[in-house]
Amino acid sequence: MKRKIINGIYGAASAAVAVLLGMVILGQEAFVRYETVITVSLADRAYFILMAAAVPMALLAVAVCNCNDIRNSRHPKRNQFLLFIPALICFGSIVLLVGTVLIGMVNSILNSGRAMSQS
C-alpha cells in the first residue's frame, strides 16, 4: 500500500514537472499588474515553481528508489537515472538562474570598470 502511494505521488509530481517545463519553454505573457507595473509571465511563474520543487523532487525520487528496491533490479543505474530526471530538471533550473545572475554581475562589473577608465 505504501509503495502504491509513493509511486502515485511520484507520478503526479513527474507529470507536474513535465507540464511546468512545457510552460517554461512555451510560456506567454499572462497578465500585467498595473499598480506595480511588473510583468509576470507564465514561464516565469513555472520557472520559480520548478526551482522550489527541486529538493522535494529529489527526496521523492530517493523514496521511490528505496520503496521499489531499485538496487536489486536488472539495470539499477539506468532505472535510478530515469527516476532522477525530473529532479535534475528542477536543479538545472536553479543552476541556470544562478549562472545568469553571475554572468550579469560580471558584465556589470566589467561595464562599470570601462566607464571608470573612460572618465
Q: Key terms for this structure?
A:
4 helices; mainly alpha; 119 residues; single chain; two-stranded antiparallel sheet; 8% strand
Written account of the structure:
The protein has 119 residues and is mostly helical. The protein is built from four helices and two strands; from the N terminus they run αββααα. A two-stranded antiparallel ribbon has the order 1-2. β1 and β2 form a beta hairpin. α2 (42-52) crosses α4. It is elongated. The termini are far apart. The mean pLDDT is 87.
Q: End-to-end distance, in Å?
A: 71 Å
Annotation field: number of helices: 4
Mean pLDDT comes to 87
Strand content: 5-15%
Overall geometric form: elongated
**Weakly predicted, low-confidence segments:** none
Described by strand count, sense and barrel closure, the largest sheet is: 2 strands, antiparallel
Could you give a quick summary of the protein structure above?
The protein is mainly alpha-helical and 119 residues long.
Give the helix/strand layout.
Elements: H1 2-26, E1 29-33, E2 38-41, H2 42-52, H3 54-67, H4 76-118
Antiparallel strand pairs: 1-2
